[in-house]
Amino acid sequence: MCKKYFLCSSCPTRTTEEIKVNDRAIRRTPIDRLGFTFKCCCCIPLRLATILICLNTFVWTLLELQGAKKFIANLFENETIVYYTSIVYIFLTVCLILASGVLMFGIIIRSYDMLNIYVWYAFIYNCVYIIVYIISVVFYILKTGELSMIKSMKIIGAILWNCLFFYYVQVVNSYKMTIW
After folding, report:
1. Using CA atoms, how far apart are residues 68 and 74, in angstroms rounded to an integer?
2. Please, which residues have CB within 8 angstroms of residue 92's CB and are 6 or more apart in sequence?
3. DSSP 42
4. Bridge-partner residues for 44, per DSSP?
5. DSSP per residue over 106-167, as a string?
6. What is the pTM of this model?
7. Which neighbouring-strand residues pair with 39?
């Protein structure tokens, strides 16, 4: 039926009303508005995709920690502001690492609540990351007065990564609904 009406080999996303769940009340997240998928990238089962997303998030946050000081130092010139902003940024990134650990544990024991913790925190973290990145671009333009080709490519990369990360959160949210 899906192949007859859609170009994609998998079914399109579904809404909460279209998914049959137990009689318990559904605890909604902002990601629910994006719909639900039945497979990641049209072919990967949700459980395996969620494990891969967990590992990918863990590696990405470790790379974020490595470049956090340089990223914040490019934003501000005052050493005191750089120090305190770095502490907050590193704290948020470490919390995402912990949320990835909670996600992995939630996958292993199939816990809806643990998956929900990750979905909420990853959503909030991604929104904060977008805001911080926009602020960094504005400060960079105000500081230098121009936008180089390299910086433009970094902006495009950040936009694509954040869209992909929202998709990752949507996949985890879809898996969460399968164990509800």
Report:
1. 10
2. 125, 128
3. T
4. 40
5. HHHHT-HHHHHHHHHHHHHHHHHHHHHHHHHHHHHHHHHSS--HHHHHHHHHHHHHHHHHHH
6. 0.74
7. 45
Q: How far apart are CA 22 and CA 180, in angstroms?
A: 7
Q: Which residue has the tokens 């508005």?
A: 33
Torsion of CA 140, 145, 148, 150, to 10 degrees: -10
| Alpha-carbon dihedral 69, 75, 77, 80, rounded to 10 degrees | -60
What distance lies between CA 112 and its chain's CA centroid? 18
Low-confidence ranges of the chain (pLDDT < 50): 1-11, 23
* Whole-number Å distance between alpha carbons of 47 and 55: 13
Specify the amino acid at residue 155.
I
DSSP single-letter state for residue 31: G
Rounded CA gap, 128 and 92, in Å?
9
- The residues that bridge with 36 in the sheet, in sequence order, are 14
Tens digit of pLDDT for each residue in 26-64? 566 667 766 677 777 778 888 898 999 999 999 988 988
